[in-house]
Write a structure and sequence with these properties.
Shape: elongated
Largest sheet: 3 strands, parallel
Order of helices and strands: HHHHHHHHHHHHHHHHHHEHHEEHEE
Strand content: under 5%
Strand order of the largest sheet: 1-5-4
Number of helices: 21
Number of strands: 5
Distance between the termini: 80 Å
Oligomer: single chain
């Protein structure tokens, strides 16, 4: 029998507190604690005694938290879907949740409602800062919170700075950034200093929750425009093709990559137009100067100055993958992506055959390059043996004759041999 030594039945509170046959753990005597203790009894039974002693004196909030162990997430789930979340709780859990909100977060779910809770979330004072931090960890898990926050945003003075807590502030900042970027193409000389100023103002927004929810595309594009501004600060030049190629493969490719990265972040037409305007201001002169420098280097002595390298050699067990228009900056990105998947990569480069169109450059990088020649007066290569114009079928036939398997569709080929496939 579970009885006190005086013969009477234990009460739960009495057993917890008594040092004579009980646990000797202090418990508050107020009514709220007694009610919370009753609600949490089934959970309490599984709590380690060491923890109960550490948390003493035990109060209502402790027992209510036993029923709401991840209170921050539970509060966010309720704000996101008040009626739906209520249905997931047993009656005692719901009462405990309401009491916890009342005593710890200063509002009552029933009496005050979700709008009051959303306003407190946006204000992020006191204990609500932890709730906001949890929201930032996984904002897409609470898709309805944005709508609530929009409804309760307080009126703001025009002199107040943007806040990371209200979605309208991000929208306003994105519109301002869009307008600023669109003006850069008119004053390219000032574009670099303007980009630096815009980054100082808008760059911090990339850490806001709204950027995680893909509502700050221009703030995200801005980091790539900063990289573009830095990469194009000095012209790409040199006295020889080799000098220019060395400068490009060491650093110049970063300008091309940054321009593509900036465009990749935006989708809306007005955002694309803004990013394009900034790219033109930062990038166009650098591109024109680089092209002019390369042309000048080649024209002095074309045959000596511009010599495409030999096609890659393929040992048995090698498959050559031809990827049309895989220029150097895209090649770097591909190598990084492959290395992230655990593959071992090495990267090299060569000058493309002229003109740099598929019909010319593709045969020139194939193992069958020596079996073809430049066509005259047409620019289309010809098969040396027959004089016929090169075509996809002709190229593949030459490759097969040179001992290469042509892999198409899902074909895997014989892994001990050599193969050619295309992307």
């Amino acid at each position: 029998l579970w009885t006190h030594k005086n013969g009477r039945d234990w009460t739960i509170a009495g057993f917890l507190q008594s040092a004579d046959g009980g646990l000797g753990i202090a418990v508050s005597a107020d009514t709220a604690t007694k009610e919370a203790l009753g609600r949490a009894l089934l959970k309490l039974a599984y709590e380690p005694i060491a923890r109960l002693k550490k948390e003493a004196p035990l109060k209502a909030a402790f027992f209510d938290e036993l029923l709401n162990p991840d209170q921050a997430r539970r509060l966010l789930l309720w704000l996101n879907d008040p009626r739906g979340y209520r249905k997931t709780l047993a009656q005692e859990e719901w009462y405990a949740f309401c009491e916890l909100c009342k005593h710890k977060y200063g509002f009552h779910p029933i009496d005050d409602g979700e709008l009051s809770g959303a306003r407190r979330l946006g204000d992020h004072h006191g204990a609500w800062q932890l709730i906001w931090d949890r929201f930032e960890e996984k904002p897409d898990g609470y898709p309805n919170l944005e709508k609530l926050l929009r409804q309760v945003r307080p009126e703001r003075s025009i002199f107040e700075s943007s806040s990371p807590y209200w979605p309208q502030d991000t929208e306003t900042a994105e519109a301002d950034l869009c307008a600023a970027l669109r003006t850069l193409s008119a004053v390219p000389a000032d574009a670099r200093s303007a980009i630096a100023q815009l980054e100082a103002e808008h760059g911090p927004r990339r850490t806001w929750v709204w950027a995680k929810l893909r509502q700050a595309p221009l703030a995200n594009a801005l980091q790539h425009l900063v990289a573009l501004a830095q990469a194009t600060e000095k012209s790409l030049g040199g006295a020889t093709v080799a000098d220019i190629a060395a400068g490009y493969t060491q650093k110049g490719w970063q300008a091309d990559a940054a321009a593509l990265d900036a465009l990749e972040t935006v989708e809306a037409a007005e955002d694309v137009a803004a990013v394009k305007a900034a790219i033109v201001a930062l990038y166009r002169t650098w591109l024109e100067n680089a092209a002019a420098a390369l042309q000048a280097a080649v024209l002095g002595n074309p045959a000596a100055n511009y010599a495409p390298g030999l096609p890659p050699a393929a040992d048995p067990g090698t498959c050559i993958l031809f990827s049309d228009a895989l220029r150097f900056d895209a090649g770097v990105k591909l190598m990084v992506a492959l290395e992230r998947r655990g593959l071992s990569c090495a990267m090299g480069w060569r000058l493309a055959a002229l003109p740099t169109v598929t019909s010319t450059a593709k045969p020139a990088v194939s193992p069958a390059a020596g079996l073809m020649a430049g066509g005259e007066p047409s620019l289309t290569p010809v098969v040396k043996a027959t004089g016929a114009n090169s075509s996809v079928a002709a190229l593949r036939k030459l490759l097969e004759g040179a001992g290469y398997q042509i892999l198409t569709g899902d074909a895997l080929g014989e892994p001990g041999g050599r193969a050619w496939t295309e992307l």
